[in-house]
Design a protein that fits this description.
alpha+beta, Uridine Diphospho-n-acetylenolpyruvylglucosamine Reductase, domain 2, Alpha-Beta Plaits, binds zinc ion
Length: about 475
């Protein structure tokens, strides 16, 4: 801790006074893990990594930074995929910057079993929230493959979608209350389990999805729900995306509830298998639909009847949670990262369901129309029209042009360039594809009102 002290900026000692000596990191080795994102595509530099423990400490750190013109990059589990939680590579040399890590903010309140909610600090992981909810017979409606690292603050800041979105809505829909530190160090607190409370603007809703650009989220009051009594998980191999959508309709028509609906391609399933996971079924199919259903009565019997009449190549049906079936889907991200010879170009997009078959065909063909190596693997949350376009082996110099190609296809199909991962640093230059000039001006007005000096997550969401 002491090696670099003489070269430390004058404000670093003040921050040590607030959070404690050992929680202001300035040594390159100690900071390294906070400066690069999970994909390895985004890295930046910082003068210090600061790890507060309480909201009051965050408020004091932010106030001190505001007074010294120090920018702040907010970081939760650092599992984001658009570079939003690491500092910029090209920051202005005259603007010092700290990474504010919520890693020590890991308190969980007692579950309110009657109001069905729980208050947590920003650094608590999704998995920890769900375990605490589970002990009270409830479940956390947000779930995603990175559950053991992704944090409360992170999923709210990015308005994460995840695998339960189709059933429960996105993270914003789970936020009952919020506590956040504004750019000048004041603490904003809306904390009530009331589900009806219409006094003015929905500020918690505004902070959800703001990607750390409006305030530092320190605590969240989350809605919890009763888990389904029983679920059945099916992985069905199909030849066409239309067949997968048809199965979803059939399941809903028979009165079952769709808890999750995911799509994989043969290339993705084969890759995950190469990396050690059992295939869901022996037959190769162009697409594999993973469907989790709940409902009254004999869920499995109904699913089997539907499959009997459906154009499926092969299918496996298991009682939930069917972790081995889910693992095939959830291991995609890691297997793809291991298989690509270059940092993966990851594009999280959505299109209207009616356009999905055509859009998936066009996106799968992206590799054929570019003049450099590019191996697309598509997967994602089919029920939400949300496809994760992962492009492997793309040379760094070609990443921009292939991204533009994908976004052109998405825009032409009436889709969104960011379904659930946010804009971060990765997509800043493309926001005009999804929002009008006036819309972006209003967002800029909000940003300027809450963070006039542009000190919170500079370079994220806005150029
Ligand atoms: C998922 O759905 C995540 O598993 C990650 O959103 C998607 O790796 C990706 O592209
Ligand atoms: Zn996803």
């Amino acid at each position: 801790m002491t090696g670099n002290r003489t070269r430390d900026p004058f404000w670093a000692d003040d921050l040590r006074g607030i959070v404690g000596d050992t929680h202001v990191l300035t040594e390159p080795d100690a900071m390294a893990g906070h400066l690069t994102d999970w994909t390895g595509r985004f890295s930046g530099t910082a003068d210090a990594v600061v790890r507060p423990r309480t909201t009051d400490q965050v408020a004091a750190v932010v106030a001190r930074c505001a007074g010294a013109d120090v920018a702040i990059c907010v970081q939760g589990g650092n599992t984001g995929l658009v570079g939003g939680s690491v500092p910029p590579a090209d920051r202005r040399p005259d603007t010092p910057l700290i990474v504010l890590s919520t890693v020590r903010m890991s308190d969980i309140d007692e579950v309110d079993a009657v109001g069905r909610c729980v208050g947590v600090q920003a650094g608590v992981t999704v998995d920890a929230i769900d375990r605490r909810a589970g002990a009270a017979g409830l479940t956390f409606p947000v779930d995603l493959a990175s559950r053991e690292s992704a944090t409360a603050g992170g999923v709210v800041a990015t308005n994460a979608g995840g695998i339960r979105m189709i059933r429960r809505g996105n993270t914003r829909a789970q936020v009952l209350g919020i506590e956040a530190v504004l750019a000048d160090g004041r603490i904003l607190r809306r904390w009530t389990s009331l589900v009806k409370d219409n006094v003015g603007y929905d500020l918690p809703g505004l902070l959800a999805g703001s990607e750390g650009t409006l305030a530092v989220i320190t605590r969240v009051l989350f809605r919890l729900v009763a888990p389904p009594a029983a679920t059945v998980v099916t992985v069905a191999g199909v030849r066409h995306v239309e067949d997968a959508l048809g199965l979803l309709d059939a399941v809903a028509d028979r009165g079952l509830t769709i808890e999750a609906a995911e799509i994989m391609t043969e290339a993705g399933v084969a890759l995950v298998h190469e990396h050690g996971l059992r295939r869901p079924s022996a037959s190769a199919s162009p697409f594999h639909l993973l469907l989790e259903a709940s409902g009254p009565g004999d869920i499995e019997g109904v699913v089997l009847e539907i499959l009997d009449d459906a154009p499926v190549v092969d299918a496996v049906v298991e009682p939930g949670p069917a972790r081995a079936l889910w693992a095939v889907r959830e291991q995609h991200t890691e297997s793809i990262a291991r298989a690509s010879t270059t940092p993966v170009v990851k594009l999280d997009v959505s299109v209207p369901l009616r356009a999905l078959p055509e859009a998936m065909a066009e996106l799968s063909a992206v590799g054929e129309v570019v003049d450099h190596p590019c191996r697309p693997i598509l997967f994602g949350h089919i029920g939400d029209g949300n496809i994760h376009v992962n492009l492997l082996d793309v040379p760094e110099a070609a990443a921009h042009s292939v991204t533009a190609r994908v976004f052109t296809v998405v825009a032409a199909n009436g889709g969104s360039i960011s379904a659930e991962h946010g804009i971060g640093r990765a997509k800043v230059q493309w926001t005009d594809l999804g929002r009008s000039d006036v819309d972006r001006e209003v967002m800029r007005t909000v940003k300027d009102a809450l963070d006039p000096a542009g000190m919170l997550n500079p370079g994220v969401l806005f150029g």
